[in-house]
Structures are given as C-alpha cells and as structure tokens.
Amino acid sequence: MNTALILAAVTALATTAGGFLALKSKDRLHIVLGLAAGLLLGLVAFDLLPEIFELNKNELFHAPAVSVAFIAGFILLHLIERALGSHEPSDSEYAHDHQHSHNLAGTVGALTMSGHVFLDGVALGIAFQVSNSLGIAIFVALLVHAFSDGLNTVSLLVKSGNWSRRAIWLLAVDAVMRIGGAAFGTYITISDPVLGVYLAAFAGMLIYLATSHILPEAHSKHSSKLTMLATFLGIIIMWLVVANLPHE
C-alpha cells in the first residue's frame, strides 16, 4: 500500500486521539498544545522553508515567489476562519458567549475546513514524490496539526453541549478527506517550482495554525512558564530531528 496513504490514515487517527485526550485530561492540555506549536514552528523553520526555497527560485515583483505564497497561505486561512468563526479557543470568551448561536456555523465551518484537510493530504502525497525526508517532515506537521485539532474541536463541542453523532460524523469526514487528498497528491505530477509555491502556501497555513490557533488555546486558561517551556522544547526537538534526517 502507498506510504502516503498509510501515513494519512495515521494522521486521521491522531485527530481521534486528540479528541480522546480532551475528554480524559483537563489540567495538562496547555502543555501538550505548547509543545505542538513548537514542533510546527520548528518544522517550518528548519525543514520546509529551506526545501521550498530550493524548489523555486523565481521572483514575483522583485520578491521571492515562495515568500508571496507563504504570506498568501497565512492570510487565506485567516480570512476563512474570520468568515466562518472557526477555531476559536475553547476557553475563550467568544467561544463561551456564542456557543449556541454558532452551532450551525461551526458545523458548516468544519465541513468547509475539510477542504483544507484535503489539501493537507495532497501536500503529503506530493512531498513523497520529492523525497522521503520531505514526506516525513510533512507527515510530522500533519500529525501535530491533526492531534491539536481533534483536541480543540472536542473540547469546544463538549463545552457547548454539542457533542453528538454529528461530531463523530465530522471526524469520519476528516479521515476520508486526508486519505483522499494523499491519494490525489501521490498520482499527480507537478513541476518543482509549482510544488515550491504550493508547499510555501501550506507552510504559511501551518504558521497561522501554530500562532493564531494552537498557542492562543494553550494560553487561554493556563498561561504559564511551563507552556512557554514546552513551546521552546518543541522547537529544539524539531531542530534536532531535522538535523538528523537523511536528506536526499
């Protein structure tokens, strides 16, 4: 079976694992999220960005094309989340005050974000076409993202009293979209410059998730030195992991 498809299935399981942790643990989630944010930041800085600049050296209006794509990915995800009201920290005032009026919007947002999940899978599939080391790096990013997403989503649904079969159905959609995206990414052929632009936009989305989603959630209730320490630890761990990955 294709490696990308297997790993995409693992990331889907990570979403469920994050949700399970949200149900079972209450007092240490901020540390886990702080670590997750650090891992994503380290991955983008030490692995994705150097690879992206190697894949595409073109310029757009005297700026690196991949830098423009990076900012575009960040802004695009920000606009989507502002429009749909999704990914509010589960302990934020907004999430608490609007939990009933935004139930439908939250479901629509989750379904819309499944398109983003599909693109995650595509990134995994095409990364393995470049090299195994890049594929593994993307897999780590998706694993961290999927885990924190499951943790936050379930926390919010439970808090709002909206935990139901619909939530389980949405998790199933998440799994199908990840695997479907990986299958699509495995069998399409694109040039290195186009791949560089795509991965740059993907990296921008990861930075947005780490800084505007995961870290605010980590500090929303239990802001502490341990949370910051976990973030720094995640960055250092990823630095060491990338330094020891075999590069092809």
Structural description of this entry:
It is a single chain. The protein is mainly α. It is built from 9 helices and 2 strands. It has helices at residues 3-24, 29-55, 65-84, 93-97, 103-130, 132-159, 165-187, 192-222, 225-243, and strands at residues 59-60, 63-64. A two-stranded antiparallel sheet has the order 1-2.
Structural class: mainly alpha
The level of helicity is over 70%
Number of separate strands: 2
Task: Determine Rg (CA atoms, Å).
Answer: 17 Å
Strand order of the largest sheet: 1-2
Keywords:
9 helices; mainly alpha; globular; 248 residues
Topology of helices and strands:
Elements: H1 3-24, H2 29-55, E1 59-60, E2 63-64, H3 65-84, H4 93-97, H5 103-130, H6 132-159, H7 165-187, H8 192-222, H9 225-243
Antiparallel strand pairs: 1-2
Helix pairs in contact: 1-5, 1-6, 1-7, 2-6, 2-8, 2-9, 3-8, 5-6, 5-7, 5-8, 6-8
Structure in a nutshell:
With 248 residues, this protein is an all-alpha fold. It has helices at residues 3-24, 29-55, 65-84, 93-97, 103-130, 132-159, 165-187, 192-222, 225-243; strands at 59-60, 63-64.
